[in-house]
Design a protein that fits this description.
Elements (H helix, E strand, L loop, with lengths): L1 E6 H11 L4 E4 L7 H8 L6 E4 L3 H13 L4 E6 H17 L5 E6 L13 H8 L3 E2 L4 H18 L3 E3 L3 H4 L2 E6 L17 H4 L3 H23 L5 E3 L8 E5 L1 H10 L7 E4 L8 H8 L4 E5 L5 H12 L5 E3 L14 H12 L5 H11 L16 H12 L5 E4 L24 H12 L4 E7 H17 L4 E7 L28 H7 L4 E5 L4 H12 L4 E7 L13 E2 L9 H6 L4 E4 L2 E4 L9 H5 L5 E2 L5
Parallel strand pairs: 2-3, 2-4, 4-5, 5-7, 6-7, 10-11, 10-12, 12-13, 14-15, 15-16, 16-18, 17-18
Antiparallel strand pairs: 1-8, 9-11, 19-22, 20-21
């Protein structure tokens, strides 16, 4: 063993490698992305690494590997699990031969997500064991234990870190290379009674699953990471139950105080029932501190009822802990202070919060980067459709920021790929509306192709706009089927978006550079006027990935200070300084869009060749 300073996600990857990982696949999504990327960086060639087209594909790929006896891991964020839930629910009935971990990173806050979903519910819904790490060190150790449990009980297992574990850093103990386990898969053994799901198989499997989970509840009660600590304060009959990063906050708050009884739940499902009874039996009252939902709280209420315990359980359900958002050390301090009766009233707590709160930083709303081609795409469509009744259905990615003023070009945004079908739904009810759906190139492959097929088959009248910047920009520029390279470093044929669209039945598919503004506007006007399903691919590389051109220059003698460049585009590279419009040379990429918007020719841009 030796020490290394690692991010939580890196620790998870390194732990999985040490446990003999054979295959890892997933779809990028903050806060999970670095797990797969770290595995790729530390791959000695024995591990197959893949960014799959979406989470469903990844789940099925990981299952196939585990059928062969391989140790596999599938990575995603909490909303990605929704996409993968179809194979997941059947996979539990089939089971696996090798260890298979489904690493789902939850995002309380939410900091970078559409929802605050709690994957612990999915664990109980799908009847899969769930591991919930609280520190970087525990994440490293527990991922290895999760693979062992999975392989021993022939079931996929959830591994559920949250953002503050995924992105925390710590100096931890890691194994030396000679301590790594090597897993040699047996290979797939044909057996239709084992691997082909039929009603009779599912019925028998369901009974076996319930028996197994009852057994696991007992085993997890003795699992060393489910901790029951007696009170350090003599005569105290209060307790606190927690988990994950919230457990770390609880320990921090109690560090210099006499503590009540403590219960750390590292395996929320199957719930460690006997350990819970041992914790509750001598207590009058228990506070549950958890993220996000009252999972532990409900389990403890159930245990009290089942075993006729008179312990009062409080938390989110009783209004003693906030019901949304992430916990913080300060919020946990306040919850515990009231619970323990440490004499802090509202005014005192407010004083503490004021003292602990740093000064507010200047507000910078999220915006598209300077030089982002999506800005030009949105502006071209806005100009082309001026004066017409329209709806612009957006999607998940950088281009969601097209909703910001002054562009104001995202009327709806639900989940990945949904905009294509939402536009169809609006068009069926309001046929006089010009319906547009914006989708990125990575999202197109992940979940929008089926929407395009649906539109053609059901004779929709809409325009699909594919914003192709040749990367998965939002999550850190991962490759996808349209980039021509894989996560294993292979150079492959690009999957052509235009060919795919024509293949599913679109007859009008045009590709244009959005930074050629006049041509882009003309293309939108012409294509949108056609009936039926048609598509425009706006193709221009992500500004972050290319060498910038020379920044634009404003001629002060020509500039009339109309500020159209600012009021129309909202580019952060164009600023007001000393009352005049200026170019911020540190941000401007020289894309030239503003030169085409300026009506008096005051802005010029010398492109490098």
């Amino acid at each position: 063993m030796h020490k290394e300073f690692l991010m939580g996600n890196a620790a998870i990857a390194r732990g999985a490698i040490a446990a003999g990982l054979n295959l890892i696949c997933g779809y990028p999504g903050t806060p999970s992305t670095e797990v797969l990327e770290t595995t790729a960086k530390n791959n000695d060639g024995k591990i197959y690494v893949e960014w799959s087209v979406n989470e469903k594909a990844a789940m099925e790929l990981g299952a196939g590997a585990a059928y062969c006896g391989a140790r596999s891991m599938v990575t995603m964020k909490q909303v990605g699990l929704n996409v993968a839930s179809d194979p997941l629910m059947s996979l539990e009935y089939i089971g696996v031969k090798g260890g298979m971990v489904i690493m789902v990173a939850d995002d309380p806050g939410p900091i970078s997500s559409q929802t605050e979903q709690d994957t612990r519910h999915f664990a109980s819904f799908s009847k899969l064991p769930c591991f919930d790490p609280s520190t970087v060190q525990e994440a490293y150790d527990m991922i290895q234990e999760a693979l062992e449990f999975s392989e021993k009980y022939h079931t996929p297992v959830f591994f559920r870190p949250t953002t503050r574990v995924c992105h925390a850093y710590a100096s931890i103990d890691v194994k030396d290379r000679e301590e790594y386990k090597e897993n040699k898969p047996e290979g797939f053994v044909k057996d239709s009674s084992r691997w082909v799901i039929f009603p009779r198989l599912s019925y028998n499997a369901h009974m076996n699953i319930e028996e197994r989970n009852a057994e696991l509840s007992d085993i997890f009660s003795g699992y060393g990471r489910n901790i029951v600590l007696p009170p350090s304060e003599p005569g105290c009959r209060k307790g606190i139950a927690s988990h994950g990063i919230s457990w770390t906050y609880v320990k921090e708050v109690l560090r210099d105080r006499e503590a009540p009884a403590l219960f750390k739940v590292s395996t929320p499902f199957p719930f460690p029932e006997k350990a819970a009874v041992n914790f509750l039996k001598d207590l009058d009252e228990v506070l549950c501190i958890e993220e996000l939902d009252p999972v532990i709280e409900r389990e403890l209420v159930y245990v009290c009822g089942k075993y006729h315990l008179n312990t009062r359980i409080i938390g989110k359900l009783t209004g003693h802990v906030k019901t949304a958002g992430e916990n913080t050390c300060d919020s946990v301090r306040g919850d515990i202070s009231f619970f323990m009766g440490w004499g802090l009233d509202d005014a005192e707590l407010q004083d503490i919060e004021v003292q602990d709160t740093p000064p507010e930083l200047p507000v910078r709303p999220p915006v598209l980067c300077a030089g982002c081609p999506h800005r030009a795409s949105f502006y071209a469509v806005k100009q082309a459709m001026k004066g017409q009744k329209t709806i612009f259905c957006g999607d998940i990615g950088c281009y969601t920021l097209g909703n910001a003023m002054p562009l104001d070009m995202v009327d709806t945004c639900l989940c990945m790929g949904a905009g294509v079908n939402i536009a169809q739904g609006v068009g069926k009810i309001e046929p006089d509306t010009k319906c547009f759906a914006f989708v990125g190139d990575s999202t197109f492959f992940a979940s929008a192709i089926t929407g395009a097929v649906n539109a053609v088959y059901n004779q929709a009248d809409m325009t699909l706009i594919v914003l192709d910047n040749s990367t998965t920009a939002m999550t850190g520029h991962q490759p996808h089927p349209g980039t021509g390279r894989t996560m294993m470093g292979q150079v492959v044929d690009k999957v052509n978006i235009e060919a795919v669209l024509r293949g599913v039945g679109l007859t009008t598919v045009e590709t244009v550079d959005p930074l050629q503004l006049d041509k882009a506007v003309e293309t939108v006007k012409r294509v949108a006027a056609e009936k039926g399903v048609k598509a425009i691919i706006f193709r221009s590389p992500c500004a972050v990935l290319i060498k910038p051109d020379k920044p634009a220059v404003i001629d002060p003698d020509k500039c009339i200070q109309c500020r159209k460049c600012i009021n129309s585009l909202g580019c952060p590279g164009i600023i007001i300084s000393d009352g005049s419009v200026k170019i911020d040379n540190s941000l401007c990429s020289g894309c030239g869009l503003c030169t085409q918007v300026c009506t008096v020719g005051a802005i010029s841009c010398e492109k490098e060749v």
